[in-house]
Specification:
7-stranded mixed β-sheet, 6-stranded mixed β-sheet, 30 strands, globular, binds iron/sulfur cluster
């Protein structure tokens, strides 16, 4: 905290980290952020967590990219081998003109040989307008749909299940609605670390007497506030949830009227659940049958209940089945579409909701309009004043890496994503990046992915750009710059426009508000939301009139599906892709920590956050460590069928005895060297939350 002489400007904007979307007031002096304050946004009501409060100084880190770079002709072979403090061994500085010409020229050459040979990864850390432009550039510029982003790695399976059964991929109620609930389930999520401000609402709910049911293989932080903590066996979600629903059917606790009025496929669901008695599922999921019965009665008996879930649910080869179960559980009890009732997948990145809405996905155009629908495509072609593009769904994140190895994809444009850290089986992904004929990376730092680039385009940090952003609550908010991009860096939308022009596209945008205006022509979800309105207030979509602040709760009177009915889709138990055996006897679970964000490119360059968590670590149960002869603070070696890393061990009683929890922010012990690239067949999301791993004492001290 300071007083007014400590700053010369105040700028109201939004936090760049998680999907909660806290509004922040930046206090700026001499173009530097001095400190911040939470302001009264709809999702945070003045609150901030440690990342929002202290994680802003990375924008002035000495390793910021401030000049366009082109790989030198005499650079060493591509690999993870560039010193970020001495880029000149591999890259030479270039003017924007030259760098853009080389970047676009290489992509155009591959396009003209065969348009399908180029793919694009956009970013959930960019604005809605930048995400929209990115998908448009790939579709209009290359004629296909090989465009994706990190939603594929977080909630793709949740979205698949929600689209299938509810008709919409977004939340049915804001997380703030928990104040009107009397029961809430939080499953496969660790909001105390990953959505910390949302977690404060959950804690308040429990302190007021709400029944908080926490379900997770790890004893996550919310357990201290829980009325029930179900620490089930990793990968056993479907068996546990089916057993709970079995009790609701068996004891006729379901909402008959709701089911008859607003759902379909109930008879098949009811029949399917017969085989999942709690007694039969107890050894499968590891939860006592009586506890399962108790939870079923509590949830079904609630006046209003919500279900929140995270990547513990979604990042499995049965992630879509897990979400199907949660949707069915809510539907059978009529816990959707009322105050205090709803389904809420907690979205991870600050704009993963908005980037998905804007069409940064290979099967959907903006507003989840299918690329296979001829009418939809021709409507977009009309707005874009261009010819048709492919009706074939594009490749997803992991599939694109495989396609590079197969020679199908030879060039990529990657904006703000870091697949050389974030992809599963990351050595496979790094080898793919090294094979590309032409890689254009647009980012603020020399990320691990940028190590493999042919051209690097220095771009803007979130604090340096104008644009809208959409949080987990469907709230669209305005991001405002605290200053211009550092050095010769440029705003991402500007770089996209310049590349598009060089790819032969007739783009004339001169400000993101013009992009937003075009988005409104293609996205019904933005009805009644204008740039000017967002300058003054956050608006939750859908907004029913220019005065309506937006609908916090949706689907009270029907769903956007045939006949307005949601669907029950039964799910069977599918085992994880690889299960522990004599060689790899433990279960590896990866995830995040409070202080670090995803692949660490921002938070590990933020002084306060990095000082709190400076070193790669992993957590094991104290009994497991004792059995291994390892003291906390010593190093252990983790090995899977993909690779091996050495990392410092921590003792954590919240981790089950046969589990290992490993954060994925640390390049020196990259978790994704170990993880399994097996995919959920519907959401195409990898199984980050379950790999068979061997744990050994490492000699390193
Ligand atoms: Fe930022 Fe999320 Fe923390 Fe809010 S809860 S300050 S949005 S990281």
């Amino acid at each position: 905290r300071g007083d007014s002489k400590d700053f010369d400007r105040e700028v109201d904007s939004v936090c760049p980290y998680c999907g909660v979307g806290c509004q922040i007031k930046f206090k700026v002096k001499d173009d530097k952020i001095k400190y911040v304050e939470g302001i009264d946004g709809p999702a945070n009501e003045n609150r901030l967590c440690v990342k929002g409060r202290f994680g802003f100084d990375y924008i002035d880190h000495p390793h910021r990219l401030t000049k366009p770079l082109i790989r030198r002709d005499d650079a060493p072979a591509k690999g993870l081998n560039v010193d970020p403090g001495n880029l000149h061994t591999h890259f030479r500085e270039a003017t924007w003109e030259e760098a853009l010409d080389v970047a676009a020229g290489g992509l155009a050459r591959l396009r003209d040989e065969d348009g399908r040979r180029v793919a694009g990864f956009g970013s959930a850390k960019c604005s809605n307008e930048e995400a929209y432009l990115f998908q448009k550039l790939i579709r209009q510029g290359f004629g296909h749909n090989n465009v994706d982003h990190c939603t594929r790695l977080c909630h793709a399976s949740s979205v698949a299940a929600l689209m299938e059964n509810v008709g919409s991929g977004a939340v049915t109620a804001t997380f703030n609605e928990i104040e009107n609930a009397d029961v809430a389930i939080v499953i496969g999520a660790n909001p105390v670390e990953n959505h910390p401000v949302a977690a404060t609402y959950f804690k308040q709910f429990a302190k007021r007497g709400g029944k908080l049911i926490v379900m997770d293989p790890r004893g996550v932080g919310l357990r201290r506030f829980a009325s029930n903590m179900l620490q089930f066996k990793a990968g056993a979600d479907v068996s546990m949830l089916n057993a709970i629903m079995h009790v609701i059917v068996e004891e006729e606790l379901y909402d008959r009227q709701y089911i008859e009025a607003l759902t379909e496929n109930w008879p098949a669901m009811r029949e399917h659940l017969r085989g999942f008695s709690p007694e039969k599922m107890e050894p499968v999921c590891g939860i006592d049958a009586e506890v399962l019965r108790d939870v079923a009665r509590t949830f079904a008996g609630a006046k209003a209940a919500m279900i929140f879930w995270g990547m513990g649910v979604s990042q499995h080869i049965h992630g879509t089945d897990n979400s199907r179960c949660l949707i069915s559980l809510a539907l059978m009890c009529g816990h959707v579409g009322r105050p205090g009732a709803g389904l809420h997948p907690l979205r991870g990145q600050n704009n993963v909701q908005g980037a998905s809405d804007a069409g940064l996905i290979p099967m959907f155009l903006p507003d989840y309009q299918s690329v296979t629908d001829d009418g939809v495509r021709s409507a977009f072609s009309e707005v874009w004043s261009s010819g048709d593009f492919s009706s074939e769904k594009g490749l997803t994140v992991v599939e694109i890496m495989d396609a590079i190895h197969d020679g199908q994809i030879r060039g990529m444009y990657i904006l703000g994503e870091n697949p050389a850290m974030s992809d599963p089986d990351v050595d496979h992904a790094r080898a793919a990046l090294a094979k590309l004929d032409h890689l254009v990376v647009q980012d603020i730092f020399l990320t691990e992915t940028a190590n493999y680039a042919d051209v690097i385009l220095p771009s803007s940090a979130w604090y340096e750009k104008s644009g809208t952003v959409t949080n987990t609550n469907r709230q669209v908010q305005m991001g405002r710059p605290v200053r211009k991009p550092l050095g010769d860096a440029r705003e991402d939308w500007w770089i996209e426009v310049e590349l598009a022009k060089r790819l032969g596209l007739d783009w004339t945008y001169s400000h993101p508000r013009e992009v937003f205006a075009e988005m409104k022509r293609t996205m019904k979800s933005l009805d009644n939301i204008t740039w000017e309105r967002l300058e003054g207030e956050a608006v939750t979509y859908p907004s029913l009139s220019p005065e309506d602040p937006g609908q916090a709760i949706v689907f009270g009177d029907g769903f956007p599906r045939a006949e307005g009915r949601a669907r029950f889709t039964p799910a069977n138990v599918v085992p994880p892709d690889e299960v522990p055996d004599g060689e790899y006897p433990f279960v590896l679970i990866t995830g995040r920590q409070l202080e670090h964000w995803h692949t660490g490119s921002m938070t590990r360059r933020s002084k306060v956050l990095d000082a709190v968590e400076p070193e790669a670590n992993c957590s094991l149960n104290p009994k497991t460590l004792r059995a291994l002869g390892v003291e906390p603070g010593e190093y252990i070696r983790l090995s899977t069928r993909r690779g091996s890393i050495s990392v410092m061990a921590r003792a954590d009683r919240a981790v089950a005895e046969n589990n290992v929890f490993l954060p994925f922010a640390y390049v020196e012990a990259a978790a994704n060297i170990l993880t399994n690239a097996a995919l959920d067949p519907y959401g195409k999301i990898p199984e980050f939350k379950y790999s068979a791993v061997r744990v050994e004492k490492d000699g390193r001290m």
